[in-house]
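Entry 12.
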Amino acid sequence: MEPADRGEARVVEVLRLPRRVVHVVTLTSPTVFLLVDERAGAILVNSPPFSEQALSVVRRVANPDFIFLPSRFGARDLDDWRRATGARTLASTEEVPAIDGTIDEPVDGGVRMHGRLDFLLLSGRSRGTCALRVKEPPGIVFFGPALSHAAGGGFVLRAQPDDYSFENRLIGALALRDLAFEFAFCDDYIEKGVTVASPADRAVHAAVDAALNELK
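Predicted 3D structure (tokens):
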């Protein structure tokens, strides 16, 4: 999963809710999201290649308070973004050694931000893949590379040649069947050109069940 340059960055709103807004930074793959939450602040999910132009367009929406990396795949020019924005960087404890850049706050499952956001450990795509969840309804989950968007809508859970452990991915995904959330985003959001749909939890549960059925 190599980053691909897409020219100048733009920030596009893709979901507006009463207390938070989700944007995408349309520059590279994996997709970079900017979540602006009225209490937790502004959170970049993944970091794009750094440039003054990219920094400017992100700041027109909000200067990031945090940069969260679901996996090493989404870390581009992390220290440049950290210095320019003053944002605190976060990633799972297991993923920190694989990330090129400084992580200020290693996190584990169950850790919360302002009581509204927490982290779901989904090791398998990489050693420390971790999702960010907005718990307060309507819930949102940023899955990073743990799941993928399906071209026709919905989600898929399939083994990748460079998986750290697909077995771990399945085990972690099983717990998702007990979670309720309205919206979900993955690292390939721009690649698939998907439309935000609700409720996302049913589509994720179906993806997990399909992956289990393929093993039978």
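Annotation: The chain has a mean pLDDT of 90. The two ends are 28 Å apart (CA to CA).
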